[in-house]
Amino acid sequence: MYQMDIVYDIENTYGDEFVYENENGNMAIKKTVLTAFSKLKKEYDIEWNKSEKAWFLN
After folding, report:
1. Domain limits for position 49
2. How many domains does the chain have?
3. Are 34 and 46 in contact, with CB atoms under 8 Å apart?
């Protein structure tokens, strides 16, 4: 799951209070959402790949 796809899904589903425009002008996921997701990724064995800016199931 690529971050750019997810950020638009979050915005469309839950509203713009969960996303923001970063200093580069790109849409990004708010830190509170990423923190909550971090707790879930351990439970579901999901890994963040920084170079691809995507989450993958292990």
Report:
1. 3-57
2. 1
3. no
